[in-house]
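Interim report to the steering committee. The following record documents the input for M16 family metallopeptidase (971 residues).
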Amino acid sequence: MKKPIICLLLPLAALLLPAPLFAQSLTDAAPAADAVSAKADTKPWLYEGSDIPVDESWTFGTLKNGLRYAVKNNDVPAKQMSIRVRIDAGSLHEKDDEQGFAHLIEHLAFRGSTHVPDGEAKRIWQRFGVTFGSDSNAQTTPTQTVYQLDLPNSDDARFEESMKILSGMIREPRISETALNAERAIVLAEQRESSGAGQDAANKLREHLYQGQRLAKRAVIGTTETLLSADATRLAAFHQRWYRPENTVVVIAGDGDPAVMASMIEKYYGDWPSEGIPAKQPDFGKPAAGETADLFIEPTMPSLVTMAWLRPWTLKDDTIVYNESILTEYLATAMVNRRLERAAREGSSFVFAGIDTNDLARSAETTQIAIQPVDGQWEAAVTDVRAIIADALATPPSQMDVDREKRDFLDVFRTQVQSYRFESAAKQADSIITAVDIRETVAAPQTVLDVFTAMDARLTPNNVHAALKRLFAADAERVFLTAPKADGAGAQVMKDRLARAFTENVVANADARLPEKTLTIDDLPALGPPGGVVASGVHPRLQIETVQFANGVRALLDPNKAENDQIRMIVRFGKGYQSFTAKGGDLLWAGPLVLGDNGVGELSRTEIDEIVKGRRISLDFSIEDNAFEFSSTTRPDDLADQLRLIAAKLEHPGWRPGPVTRAKASAKANYDSFEMSANSVLQRDLEYLIRSKDRRWKSPSPAEIDALTPEKFEEFWSPLLKQGPIEVIIFGDFDRDKAVAALSATLGAMKPREDVPPSDTQLQMAFPKDNKKPVTLTHKGPQDQVAALIAWPTGGGLEQISESRELDVLAAIFRDRLFEKFRAEQAASYSPDMANNWPENFPEGGYLMAYTQVRPQDVDKFYAFANDVAQDLIDTPISDDELQRAVEPIKQYIERASSGNTFWLQYLKGAAFDSRRFDALGRLYTDFNNVTPARLQDLAKRYFRNDKAWKLTVRPEKITAKGAGAVPAGR
C-alpha cells in the first residue's frame, strides 16, 4: 500500500494511493489483454502477497517476456495520455567504475534511438503539443530510471507514434562514441551547475547516515572520473544488463480504451527478447554501528542539524495489518511535530524542527529530525528538541492529542475520496511507479478511509505511544551538523560536543504538550451585523457572477463541479507592491513570514489550529503586484468559517512577538546561504536589480533584519491590513445562496475600508539602463560556475496583454534555439533559458531575459550566441514548423489547465473591480493562435535592441578581476 506523506502537522498525500476517475473493471479488461497475447493477472502482480483490496480501476497484465504493465481510463485532462516506463535500475545498480552510467543512458535515450534520429523525438513531440522538460522528461534515482511522457491532444496516430518512439528509446538507444561524447559534455555541465556547498553538504550527509552501505558512495550523477572514462562499449553492457523486459514496468493512464493501451504495449514490447540469465540484484547493505557524529563547515551554509535513527530495510508483505502500523506511526509523528511547531512559534532555540520517516532507496528505514537553530545555537536546539521527544517517549499522549490528529487524518482521507474522480492521469500513473519502486501496492482512497476508520478503537494513547517508541529504536543512530564556521576549539571538539548533545540524557519537557483546551470558531473575535448586497451581475459568456456588498466588498462567484467537494478561494485586499514607491516598502519581506503565524486577536496560531482541527481552513498569505492575498482550498461545509477566519484576521490581527523573532532568525540564518552558488545570488538579487534597485523587491541585509522589532512590524503592517478594496474570488463546489449568506456575515459584515489608490509614482517600475559591460556580482561557490543573463526592456499593463502573449511565443522560440544549439550541440550549458516577464498591473517594467550557467571562459560565448539568436529573429522570419513547435505546447497547456478552477481563479484576479480582465481572458487562446512569423519578426525588431540591453553576470568571488565592476551580492 502506498504510504502517506506527512508534512509537519497533516498527511498531505494518500496512504494507499488515490482513486479512479472512471473505473475500468479488471474483469472487463481481461479479454482485451488476452487478445493481444498478454496475461491479465487474476491476482494482479502489484498485489502479490498482499490482502489490500485491488484498485479495480486499473488493469494489470504481464507479457510473455516478463514485462509488467498497468493501464486505466482517466480523462483528466481530456485527450491526454500519461505514459511511464520504469526500469528497475538506478545508481545503486552501478559498479564502482560505472558511477553515473544509469543517468548517462537516460540522456542518450532522449538524444536518439532506433526509430528517430538525433534530437528529433523532442521536435516530434513539440508538434504534438508536448512541452519538453515537463511533459516529456526522465528521472534517474538510486533505485530506478523512469521515462515520462504526458501526451496532450492524443489521437490514435499520435499515441502509437509516441509508443513507438518510447520503445525505441528503452530498447535500442543510440549508444555510440559520437553520441556519448556529445551527451557526456552535457552531463558534466549539469554536474557543474548543480555543484556547490548545498550539494557537497547533501553528499556528506548521505555518506554519514548510510556509512558502510552502497548508498553512501553513489551520487546519481556519478563522478567526474567515471563520466570521463565512460565508453560506448561499457555503457552498452550496462544497458544490456539492466534494460530487460522483466525489469520493466509500463504504466499508461489516459483518455482512452485500456484494451488499446494494452495492445500498444504488446505491439512495441511483446517481441523484446529476454536473453540470458538476469543479473543478480546488488546488495544495498544494512545500517550498522559506526561514527555517531559528523559535521560540514562551510561559510555559506546556515546551521542545520539532522538527527537520524536507522533500521534495516526489509521486503514486507504489504498487508492491511502492516499499513495499520504505519498509519499509527504517522499519527504519532504528526502529534510530536505539532508540539515542535508550537515551541518554534513561541520563541524556542530553534526556528524549525520536524520528524520525517521514510524507507530511503530500499537501504534503510529511517526516522529523521531536521532542526534549524536560532542564531547558530545548535547545542541548545538539539537539547530542546530532544527534551520534547523525551517527554513524548516517556509519557503516553492524552486522548485529546490522539483525537486531534485523527480528525486531521480523516479530513485528508475524506478529501481524497471526494477528489479522486478529478485527479489527473499523470498523478495516478506516477503513483503506480512509486508503489513499484518501494515494493508496495496502491489502493483506492475509499479503501484508505475504510482501513483508517476501522482502526479507530485501536488508535489509543498507549498504542500511539508504542508506535512512537518503535520509531526511535534503531540499529544505528547518527547526528550531522552543517555550520558556517568552526568554533575556536576546532572541528574535532565540535564533533565531540555534537555527539554529547545527541546522546546525553535530557530532562523531558512536559511544557511542550498542547493545552487540554477546547476551542471553537465562536472563540474568534466578533464581527459586525451581516452586510447587504447592493449589486450583482453575471458575465454573459463565462456565467461568473459579481456580487457587491454595502461595505464595498466585491466577490466573484463560480459554482461548478470541476472538482467535487473542493473550493478554491482568494481574498485580495489593499494594493500589494503598489502600496509603496520604489524607495519604500522595506518591511514587505516580513509579511509572508509572520502574518500567517501571529494569530487573531488574543488567539495564538496554535489556538487557531485547535479551532480548525479536522477541517480544510487555512491562512496562506502572499503579496501580488496590486494586492495582498489570503488563499485557501476549502470545502463546502467549511466555506463560511474559512471566510470568518479571514475576516477576523483582517479586523482583529494578532501582534504576538514570537513569530517576528522566528522570522528574523530564519531570514538571518539563510542570508549567507544565498552566496553558495551563482543561481542563489540571482534568487536573492535579480528582481531588485532588474527593477532598477526598487526597494520593494530588495532582500533585507542582516543589519536590516536585526533592526526589525515586533513594534516596527505592527507599525508597518497594521495600516496595510486595514486598506481596501476587498475582492473575494470563490470558484468550485458550493451553493451560490449559501456562499452569499456566508460572505454577508463575514467579509460583508466588516467596517467599510478606505480605498487608497496608488499614486503615479507607486505605479512606476523601471528597467535598468543599458550597459556594454555587465553588472557583476560575486558568489562563494564553485570556481567554474558563472551565471550570465541578458535582458531587453519591453512593456507592461493590461491594455497590451495580447502583445505579452506574442512575446511568450517569441521567448519559446528563443529558448528552443538556446536548447538545441547552446546545450545540445555546443554542450556549453545544461539549462539555458529564456523568459518573458510582462507586469499586467504596472504600465512598464517588462522584459525578455535569456539566462544560462557556464564556465567562466564561456561567458562571452553566451552573450555572442544570444545576440546572434536575437539578430537572426530580427533578420529572418521563422518557419511555420518552428512556430508550430512553439505555439502548440502553449495552446495544449491552456486546454489542460482550463479544466480546473485554479486556472480561472488566477486569470481573473482583480476582475470584480476591472472588467477588462474578462476580456483579456477571452482573448487568451486566440492571441496565441493568431501569432504569425511576420508579427514575431516585428516584435524582435522592436525589442531586441543592443542599445537597450542590460547584462548581468555572477562570478566566483576569488577569480573576479580587479576593477571589473564586481560588487558584493546584495548591495
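The first helix runs from residue 26 to 35. The committee is asked to note this result when reviewing the revised timeline.
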